[in-house]
Design goal:
Number of helices: 4
EC number: 4.6.1.17
Order of helices and strands: EHHHEEHEE
Function: Catalyzes the conversion of (8S)-3',8-cyclo-7,8-dihydroguanosine 5'-triphosphate to cyclic pyranopterin monophosphate (cPMP).
Structural class: alpha+beta
Distance between the termini: 24 Å
Family: Belongs to the MoaC family.
Keywords: Lyase, Molybdenum cofactor biosynthesis
Radius of gyration: 17 Å
InterPro entries: MoaC, MoaC_bact/euk, MoaC_sf, MoCo_biosynth_MoaA/MoaC, Mopterin_CF_biosynth-C_dom
Strand content: 25-35%
Number of strands: 5
Low-confidence stretches: none
Helix content: 25-40%
Strand order of the largest sheet: 2-3-1-4-5
């Protein structure tokens, strides 16, 4: 296994994917944001002054996936064919789970776009709720699965 984002001199580079063939690619990432039970109740009821927290976070996650190449220096700009953000409110854990599925047909994968989508959605929840709960914790942002490309399929073991 070798790191591909370094040139012969050990300096950073963007990998040249021009010789690779197109394939259908998909990545799924997850994470969660824990908060006080009272904050979670405000999110569920839509009573925060900034508005519909999960609705705004969903749009932010989609925008984040689309802007990944502008945020992560060695990422390629990709034409994404699908982005889906889902939320799971967990009252027992006082958290909101976030899952992002990103798809494209192209020369490089969409793992970073899925991870960015989850991260931006979680940061948006934080931003919209910070007036009532500065102690929220964003955690467990991770790649769950990916498919397509030369390296094939990956599924995280539970």
């Amino acid at each position: 296994m070798e790191l591909t984002h370094f040139n012969e001199a050990g300096r950073a580079r963007m990998v040249d994917v021009s010789g690779k063939g197109d394939s259908v690619r998909e990545a799924v990432a997850e994470g969660k944001i824990r908060m006080l039970p009272a904050t979670l109740e405000l999110v569920k009821q839509g009573l925060l002054s900034k508005g519909d927290v999960l609705g705004v976070a969903q749009v932010a996650g989609i925008m984040g996936a689309k802007a990944t190449w502008q945020l992560i220096p060695m990422c390629h700009p990709l034409l994404l064919s699908g982005i889906n953000i889902e939320f799971n409110v967990d009252e027992a854990d006082s958290s909101v789970g976030i899952a992002a599925t990103v798809r494209t047909t192209g020369k490089t994968g969409v793992e970073m776009e899925a991870l960015t989508a989850v991260s931006v959605a979680a940061l948006t929840v934080y931003d919209m709720c910070k007036a009532v709960d500065k102690g929220m914790v964003i955690e467990y942002v991770r790649l769950v699965a990916k498919s397509g490309g030369k390296s094939g399929t990956y599924r995280r073991e539970s």
